[in-house]
Amino acid sequence: MHSYQFHIGDYKSHTHHLTIIEDIAYRRLLDHYYLHEQPIRQHDIARQIGMREHEQEVLSVLEEFFQSTPEGYVHSRADQEIAKFKEFAAAGKRGAAKRWSEHSPPNSPPIAPPLPPHWGNDGPPNATPIATNNHKPITNNHIKGAEAPVSVDKSVWEDFMKIRKAKRAPMTATALEAIKREAGKAGWSLNDAIKECVTRGWQGFKADWVEKRTEAGPDPTLAKLKEDEKLARPMPASVRQALHGSLKRIV
Prior knowledge:
The chain is mainly alpha-helical. The protein has 2 domains: 1-134, no CATH class; 136-240, no CATH class. Helices cover 53% and strands 2% of the residues. It has helices at 8-15, 20-36, 45-48, 55-65, 76-103, 154-166, 173-186, 190-200, 220-231, 237-250, and strands at residues 67-69, 72-74. A hairpin with a 2-residue loop joins strand 1 (67-69) and strand 2. It starts with 7 loop residues before the first helix and ends with a helix.
């Protein structure tokens, strides 16, 4: 496809948390996907879209917004648009063929209807069938039964799975490892990171999106006071009496 519909409202609601670099990476990945009409291979994709200096951001966006399959990363919304385009083109060819057959002279040799301007004589570009949202779910990389990790509350995990399902982002071992890695960078536990995702409606987690947590040690002033308190001794009676006498004379 050389053009596609762009829904600004939908895009903004799903990408408001991205940095400028991540936003550019997502737009270029979408353009690449629509243009080639086939799954994206992770290898060398940053170079192919002209962002080799920002490979980490490109891979992060790829993991968040695309689904991993054995053929590569696919995008369910884009697959729907590509399927509609192909059906529209096929319907146009059938209509043109029908009109020609109705108006052509008897016994005239059949003439193929004209192809869309961006198609070659061999058919549409990248004519190899691609995976769509109708393909069978990939299970070899999925977490069996989407069970909650031991360190994550079951209720938190179930809520997180609902968000992933609504966004058509199956939970895979790769996705979970990415969340664990980013949670570690932020100093968060996996449970807290996933709970934050549920609260904010995120399907993934990045350390850059939250403040880093550090374990604060004891306040040094308070610690000094406690140590001095341990060393304190009661005032001797003779000193207390002498001090009391001095105060009386002053008064």
